């Protein structure tokens, strides 16, 4: 018996073969693409926080509603012990939130998933402030992500939180500050305050708002042009008063000991409110004696390098794999210096305003080291004029040319709604109107006469009121405001929570701040306090690092918690051949978990999809 096999049409054979070949080619191209062009990485730790996240908690503050992240690197799989993060601290209201690990979204999320362009540095050199991925010099099997700070042939100085450079072969030349491009500045700065987020508990006890329409005087003595809504935004003026009429920013975050006292006295209050028992709630509030009596500074404090990402506690349940979760674990609190040690004078103020007249001036002010940095915008023409210390501090460009004022044209030229952002970062003033960077006729850069020291007197609040918004004959309404600070690079080797003030702490008794012929009895308490403070800041440490040819200096944005080039030995310097590429974007931050999806993270965190700058 003969068997007859029906032959497939030539077209069918060709189609099948094409499909197989297409799959094979796609796999090969994908491998080539991954190996030579773009590759995906997962960030494990938080050395680049708060811009990029390793394993972390991501929550909305139950007090004020602000979304923030807390490190959970202690929960990484390679940890020897079983640890679970238990608390975090909100950067806006400073409330410590105890995480409910039974809630799917109050458990830790994996680090940001990023794409890295592996061709970036094949055809060109890395640029300062790039976010780079490289093989760790001490262990080439580990990939690191940091920001590029030092370039080949440079000497880098870290001082007062800033970066300075000079040629390595010119040790007699002056260090020059390294200024961040505007796009990098916006990515790297930390939010200090946002008036749209306010703690319900602090509202309840009438804790003072951070923006006020007076200097050091009490509100009930105010007779100026500004009106407000029970002490809060919006602030409104009809522009009828002459001269600069300010509202000022008070940096008065609620301290941890105050929060402890508030929570103790209000035990049961919110439970009573939620159950509808307002009689019990009101009795608790009345007995607490908190309203108007909570201790708070009469004046503002200075802004410190607080990092919410580093403020956490965790419970240690013992060595894996035998560890198990029980209620007897000891809680370790990792706050301390993460609450802020170093004064940060580089600040930025942002606000949304309505201009209601066609003439007058909007005045923006930043104070650093008792020196005023002002931007004055003439609404009739849209002209912005920058001036420092009433013209006594000159602007200086790269060629050494100086000027007392700097001017630029803005779109703020008449009635309407506007957003502005005014900053003093890295000895340069910048202004944005409606997110558009204003170009000035000459660079708004300057060289301070001396390293700034925070100061204030009885008659001049100085750095205690570092930010102000004023009307000079301008009818306007300020709807809300936000405050940011610059990254502060700590001048200390290693990755522990260090301090620039170690020289002062080690040699406190060796400092003498009395001038020849002076005695303590001749000086006021105010002057003595300033001199004592000045010797602290004058003792700030500096760190100088050499970057040799074909090498680079990387630092983490999270300077308090970063193992980086500050502490690496000479044989661990980052050589060019260890570069992998430039970080491009966060293509998958993490997904939100929902019970009905078996807690699978399938709902993307759309707000965190972003280009890395």
What is the strand content? 25-35%
CATH architecture of one domain: Sandwich
Number of strands: 37
Helix content: 10-25%
How far apart are the termini? 76 Å
Q: And the CATH topology of one domain?
A: Jelly Rolls
Highest CATH level, the class of one domain: Mainly Beta
Biggest sheet features: 8 strands, antiparallel
Average pLDDT works out at 87
**Rough outline:** globular
Radius of gyration: 28 Å
> What's the tally of helices?
8
Q: Determine the structural class based on helices, strands and strand pairing.
A: alpha+beta
Contiguous uncertain segments of 5+ residues:
1-15, 17-34
Describe the structure.
- The chain is α+β, with helices and mostly antiparallel strands and 613 residues long.
- Among the domains are: 56-113 and 309-340 and 588-611, no CATH class; 255-295, no CATH class; 345-485, Jelly Rolls (Sandwich), CATH 2.60.120.
- It has eight helices and 37 strands.
- The strands form eight sheets. Strands 1, 6, 7, 8, 32, 33, 34 and 37 form an eight-stranded antiparallel β-sheet that branches. Strands 12, 14, 15, 19, 26, 27, 28 and 30 form an eight-stranded antiparallel β-sheet that branches.
- A hairpin with a 4-residue loop joins strand 21 (371-378) and strand 22 (383-388).
- Helix 5 runs antiparallel to helix 6 (278-288).
- The longest helix has 27 residues, at 10-36.
- 36% of the residues are buried.
- Mean pLDDT is 87; it is low at 1-15 and 17-34.
């Amino acid at each position: 018996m003969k068997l007859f096999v029906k032959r497939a049409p030539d077209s069918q054979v060709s189609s099948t073969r094409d499909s197989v070949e297409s799959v094979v080619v796609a796999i090969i191209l994908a491998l080539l693409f991954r190996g030579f062009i773009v590759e995906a990485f997962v960030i494990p730790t938080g050395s680049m926080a708060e811009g990029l996240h390793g394993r972390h908690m991501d929550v909305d503050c139950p007090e004020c509603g602000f979304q923030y992240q807390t490190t959970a690197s202690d929960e990484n799989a390679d940890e020897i012990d079983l640890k679970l993060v238990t608390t975090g601290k909100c950067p806006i209201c400073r409330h410590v939130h105890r995480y409910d690990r039974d809630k799917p979204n109050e458990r830790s999320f994996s680090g940001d998933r990023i794409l890295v362009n592996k061709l970036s540095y094949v055809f060109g050199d890395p640029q300062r402030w790039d976010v780079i991925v490289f093989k760790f010099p001490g262990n080439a099997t580990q990939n690191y992500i940091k920001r590029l700070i030092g370039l080949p042939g440079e000497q880098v100085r870290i001082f007062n939180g800033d970066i300075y450079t000079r040629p390595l072969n010119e040790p007699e030349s002056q260090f020059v500050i390294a200024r961040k491009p505007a796009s990098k500045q916006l990515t790297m700065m930390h939010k200090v305050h946002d008036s749209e987020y306010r703690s319900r508990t602090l509202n309840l006890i009438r804790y003072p708002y951070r923006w006020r329409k007076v200097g050091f005087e009490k509100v009930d003595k105010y007779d100026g042009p500004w009106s407000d809504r029970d002490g809060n935004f919006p602030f409104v003026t009809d522009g009828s008063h002459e001269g600069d009429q300010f509202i000022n920013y008070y940096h008065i975050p609620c301290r941890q000991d105050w929060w402890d006292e508030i929570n103790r006295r209000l035990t049961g209050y919110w439970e009573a409110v939620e159950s509808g028992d307002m009689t019990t709630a009101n009795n608790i509030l009345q007995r607490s004696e908190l309203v108007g009596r909570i201790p708070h500074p009469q004046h503002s404090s200075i802004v410190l390098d607080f990092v919410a990402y580093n403020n956490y506690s965790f419970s240690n349940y013992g060595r894996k794999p035998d560890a198990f979760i029980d209620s007897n674990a000891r809680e370790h609190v990792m706050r301390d210096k993460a609450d802020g040690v170093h004064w940060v004078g580089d600040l930025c103020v942002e606000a949304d305003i309505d201009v209601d007249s066609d003439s007058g001036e909007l005045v923006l002010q930043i104070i650093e080291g008792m020196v005023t940095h002002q931007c004055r915008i003439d609404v009739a023409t849209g002209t912005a004029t920058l001036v420092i210390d009433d013209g006594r501090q000159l602007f200086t460009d790269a060629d050494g040319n100086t000027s007392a004022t700097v001017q630029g044209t803005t779109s703020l030229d008449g009635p309407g709604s506007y957003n502005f952002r005014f900053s003093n970062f890295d000895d340069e003033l910048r202004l944005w109107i409606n997110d558009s960077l204003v170009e000035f006729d000459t660079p708004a850069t300057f060289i301070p006469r001396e390293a700034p020291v925070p100061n204030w007197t009885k008659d001049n609040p100085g750095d205690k009121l570092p930010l102000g918004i004023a009307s000079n004959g301008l009818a306007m309404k300020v709807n809300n405001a936000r405050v940011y600070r610059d990254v502060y690079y700590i001048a200390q080797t290693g990755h522990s929570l260090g301090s620039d003030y170690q020289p002062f702490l080690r040699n406190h008794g060796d400092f003498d701040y009395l001038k020849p012929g002076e005695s303590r009895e001749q000086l006021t308490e105010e002057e003595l306090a300033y001199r004592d403070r000045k010797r602290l800041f004058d003792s700030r440490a500096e760190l100088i690092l050499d970057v040799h040819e074909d090498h680079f200096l990387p630092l983490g944005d999270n300077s308090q918690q970063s193992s980086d080039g500050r502490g690496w030995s000479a044989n661990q310097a980052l050589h060019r051949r260890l570069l992998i590429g430039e970080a491009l974007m966060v293509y998958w931050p993490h997904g939100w978990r929902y019970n009905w999806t078996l807690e699978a993270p399938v709902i993307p965190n759309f707000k965190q999809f972003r280009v890395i700058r």
